[in-house]
Design brief:
The protein is mainly alpha-helical and 207 residues long. The protein is built from six helices and four strands, in the order βαββαααααβ.
Length: 207
Amino acid sequence: MKTTSLEHTVSTSLPDSSLRLKKLAFAAIFAALTYVVFTYLSIPIPTPGGKVSVHLGNAFVVLGALLLGPLYGGLGGAIGLTIGDLIDPVYIVEAPVTFVVKLLVGVIAGLIAHRLGHISTQQNQRKLTQWVVIASAAGLLFNTFADPGLRYLYKLFILGRPAAEVTFAINFTVTAINAAVSLVIAVLLYLALRVPLKKAGLFFRLR
């Protein structure tokens, strides 16, 4: 397949150490972005069992996975949201759940996007958009059920059954709303950033 002038990418032909360093740098950027979005652009909702938030942090977890792949993208988003939990006394007890769930969200979205959809090398715009939507939706659908479910079990063990049950229904609803909005944001941002990143030589061609 012929490469156009717009497709200057960070290639997997780079030495492994150099490629890993570039991915780590981008993962750190996504960790910072995810933290900022969660901490400063969220809408907190107090509940009898704790606080939940409407935020777009999950959109950046998925976007990181689309751009960096499952491992680096998932880690960047997971670390950013976990730091946000650790700094907030209300969320600190749930930080381990956040890290595990968000890492898996990135891994799921990244594996589908790159192992099945091959989005970094896909030239057909329709197929590209389809796989970006499918991968993003799969990661966010997992989050919709896994996030409130694991938090329920975690609170059940730590806080007791009443608090866990009260929070579960609200957390599931908020997570579903987050997923719908995050899906749109992640897909639009990926499609919008793809060409500019290629022009800048900062687009990862993943396999």
